[in-house]
Each structure stands twice: as C-alpha cells, then as structure tokens.
Amino acid sequence: xxxxxxxxxxxxxxxxxxxxxxxxxxxxxxxxxxxxxxxxxxxxxxxxxxxxxxxxxxxxxxxxxxxxxxxxxxxxxxxxxxxxxxxxxxxxxxxxxxxxxxxxxxxxxxxxxxxxxxxxxxxxxxxxxxxxxxxxxxxxxxxxxxxxxxxxxxxxxxxxxxxxxxxxxxxxxxxxxxxxxxxxxxxxxxxxxxxxxxxxxxxxxxxxxxxxxxxxxxxxxxxxxxxxxxxxxxxxxxxxxxxxxxxxxxxxxxxxxxxxxxxxxxxxxxxxxxxxxxxxxxxxxxxx
Length: 288
Ligand code: SAM
Fold this sequence. Notes:
The protein is α/β, with parallel strands linked by helices. The protein folds into two domains: 8-123, CATH 3.30.1330.30; 129-286, 3-Layer(aba) Sandwich (Alpha/beta knot). The chain is 34% helix and 20% strand. The strands form two sheets. It has a seven-stranded parallel sheet with strand order 8-7-6-11-9-12-10. Strand 3, helix 4 and strand 4 (97-101) form a beta-alpha-beta unit. Helix 6 packs parallel to helix 7 (179-185) and helix 6 (149-161) runs parallel beside helix 10 (270-287). Bound molecules: S-adenosylmethionine (SAM).
C-alpha cells in the first residue's frame, strides 16, 4: 500500500514568512470549496496529504504537539476570545493562513448546524512500522481491515488512554483522517503514532519482529489473561468487524486469545474488545 503521508515532516522554522489572513463570507469561495472536499472525499485527503480537525482545543493540542498546520478557519465573531486569537496568531507566525469565516462557512465545512469556532487543516502524518518505538516492552494495536470510523477513532482514543505505543492499520481500512474518525479520537489522533500497511507488508514486518503477536479470535483457545504481556514488545491484532481476522493473519500469530463471554451475543464490538485487551495487557505489564 502506498504511504501518502509525510513521514519525515518537520515543524516549520520560526523564520518562515508569516501566513496571510483572509476574510471569507461565501461558501462558494474556492478556498472553502477545497476545504470542504477534504472533509468529504477520502481520495482528496489522500492526494493532498491533509485532514481537518475541529475545535479550538484540538487545534491547540495539535499545534502544541508540533503537527503542521496549513490553514486555520476561525469564526470571525469569536476573535475577541483570547485562546482563539492566540491560535490564529500562532498559525500566522508558523507561515500558515488564517481564514476569518462566518457561521455559514463554518457550518458548510463541518456539515453541522452548530459548528466549532476553529477548524484546522493539518498535514497527515504516519510512520513506517519499523519506526515504531515499542519502548521497553510496549504494546501496539494492529487492526485488520477496520471499517467503521467510530470504532477506529474510539480505538485510537483508547490506545492513548492505555499507553499503547502506536496503532497499525492493516489492509484496506477506513481513513483515520476522515472527519468522523478524527472526531471520535477526541484529540488522541495527535498523540498516538499511526502506521498503515498492506497485509503483505505487515507479514514481512512481522517476520523480523522479535516480540509477541497476540491475535484475538472467536475460536481462540487461549484465555485473554494468559499471554505474558509486558515481558516483550507486544502487538494485539484485532479482526474486522464482520469477518474477524483473515486466516493468513491468524496463522501468523503466536497465540489466538479469546475473551470469554456470557449470554447470547456472538461477539463483542471491536472497540470494546480492543479496550478489554489493552487494559488487560496494561494491568498485567504493570504487575511485572
Ligand atoms: N463475526 C466476526 C467473527 O466471527 O470473527 C466477529 C468479529 S468481532 C465483531 C470483531 C473483532 O473483535 C474480532 O475479530 C476480534 O478481534 C474482537 N473480538 C470480539 N469479541 C471477542 C472475544 N470475545 N474474544 C476475542 N476477540 C474478540
């Protein structure tokens, strides 16, 4: 799978020429049309290598974490809010543009009746799997063909909360930089490293990975509390929402773990199962 994102991006130097400030009042302005395309079309996001983050807190977190901003759209009427004007000033100082917009423009971009006061256009960032820093014995989540943006965003948020070192997306997955997925991360997209690989790339990386690969499977024979998480770098491999793990990926695992269930449900929701696995791995590693 190609790697469209800028894996080597560096924050702009403070010597960058300052960005421009423009007022935009019409949804048919070409700048607005282009930003709306980023919200709506995965292909456009991929080609441009950009994505949107809504909300002042998210924008400030992203700037703080050194993510590269291209454009900041702000509600002009709120610019007397010190944090918003600070974000706008920082954006301009970094050499990116600020669009001062009205309610109509913000609503059109976010497709919400009550849009946030700031929408940032950021450069996408992923890293190749060999660059993942497992720390001493860290845990990474790998997701086979995850389809649902809400699940993906929730998993990135949960991975952040559980101290996971990265999330790997394997095969044809939903776009982590889509508006819905980014919303569901609640800002964790800016703190959890993401890797995107094809199944073949994952398998070739796995061949050189000296840690533990724990697959989760409805027919797994290992109780999920058994694996020795935390003794080695660990990857938790989770299956697709409809069909679970591919046979090839399941065959590459050291163990196939199952979370015992009561009742009549066939399986747990993917994000819920990932949360159970991540916090079990964390609990077990903290005991060591
Ligand atoms: N029909 C699918 C199947 O048979 O695999 C169900 C997939 S389930 C909704 C999505 C993923 O969540 C699974 O592939 C697995 O990774 C994880 N999962 C859900 N319930 C689980 C359980 N009880 N034990 C282990 N993993 C589970």
